[in-house]
């Protein structure tokens, strides 16, 4: 299909279409809105992106993305130092923080073990996790892995690596979501919910 705009706009569309959740059509609509609202959206967005390019960094302690190292969470003395929540990616950490679900520290693995994708233990931040967990401050490691085959395999591998350190290792419960109706849930979710039942 022939380009209907100049190369600068086509480049912007192509770059935005590479973002998760945005395909070429969504990117084209987003670019059109940005250009229509150039002064109120495009110019501030450009400035914010330039700031992010200059200041964004990865925390050397936990792996979070922030504008300072150590990150805001690792610097916060009010957080529970004995509980360490292990997540696959930064997005998972941000989701838990949004929910206010964890008041301790975090550790970002940077993915999950996957034989199909060629991701092994050395490709993830597992060695540093074992080192952090064994430093004496940590009493509980919470494995907040996604309920996928690779996520569960990663959780089992980490549990094996942490055995012998005298730590409590737990994982997130799986099952019926708040507000969920049983008739609409898949078989795996229902089975996990039944298996993880607890006294009422």
Overview of this structure, please?
The chain is α/β, with parallel strands linked by helices and 200 residues long. The chain folds into 2 domains: 49 residues, RecR Domain 1 (Helicase, Ruva Protein, domain 3), CATH 1.10.8.420; 107 residues, 3-Layer(aba) Sandwich (Dna Topoisomerase Vi A Subunit, Chain: A, domain 2). Helix content is 43%, strand content 13%. It contains 8 helices and 6 strands; from the N terminus they run αααββαβαβαβαβα. The strands form 2 sheets. The protein has a 4-stranded parallel β-sheet. The chain has a two-stranded antiparallel ribbon with strand order 1-2. The longest helix has 18 residues. The mean pLDDT is 91.
Helix content: 40-55%
What is the distance, rounded to the nearest whole angstrom, between the alpha carbons of the first and last residues?
61 Å
Number of domains: 2
What profile does the largest beta sheet have? Answer: 4 strands, parallel
- Judged by helices, strands and strand pairing, the structural class is alpha/beta
Strand content bin: 5-15%
Kindly list the characteristics that best describe this protein.
2 domains; about 200 residues; about 45% helix; Dna Topoisomerase Vi A Subunit, Chain: A, domain 2; 4-stranded parallel beta sheet; alpha/beta
